[in-house]
Every structure is written in C-alpha cells, then in structure tokens.
Predict the structure.
Amino acid sequence: MITITPRQLEGLIRLATARARLLLKNQVEKDDAERAIYLFNEMLENAGVDVNTGKVDIGTLQGRPRSEASKLSTFMETIRLLEGDNKSPVSEQELIDELEKSEKFKDEDEVRRFIRKMINEAAIYESTPGHYNTV
C-alpha cells in the first residue's frame, strides 16, 4: 500500500468518472474505481520506480525519490555537524569518511558524485580546493 496526494486522488476520481461516462453509465460504480486504481498502479510500475532501489516510489513522480531525499538529509546533517558553529570548511576526505559510515552511500565514488550534485544544486560550495561549506 502506498500513500497518494490529494491531487492524485482527484485524478483517480476523474479516471473512474471518465470510464463510467464512456460506458454510458449514470453513476460511477465499484468496477470503474477499481479500473482507475489498476491504471494508476500500472503507471506507477512503469514511471514511478526509483532507479537506485528498483522499488515503486511515488516520490519519483514528484521529483525526488525517498532514497535520494534520505541521502540528502544525511548529507546536510553530516556537513553541518562537521562545520560546527563557526562554519569552518570541511575537507572532502573527512566528509567522505563520515558519509560512508552512515551506510546511506555504497562507496566513495557515490559520495563524490553526490558532493558534485550538491555543488551543482548550490546546496554547498567549495570554499577552498577540497574543502566545502553549506550555503
């Protein structure tokens, strides 16, 4: 079972209503709703799969799968902790070592790719070569 947003629920209602009208029914019946749910589930299996985990993740349709959101949260918590209150730059190797301990990242290469992604998204910046700070 997955949770859906109100917008997705409205879409299911529209699909069920459209099917009932197509079949010239005056009311939406249980089989119309079941068919709408079936179509929604098929769409999720085709378009809503997290490429990292291979599992259906509705967050994929909203832009960021849960696995990536979890990595982002861990990443930002770790770098803020390492920066401390005085916002001192964090060395790349120190950041990599701490993130590998978290078990959210498979290996050093994945951490490095994620660091580059965070720089591209302007979540962090390279204050000096090989050292990072949060924005």
About this structure: The chain has two domains: 6-47, 66-134. The domain at 66-134 is CATH 1.10.10.10 (Arc Repressor Mutant, subunit A). The first strand starts at residue 90 and ends at 91.
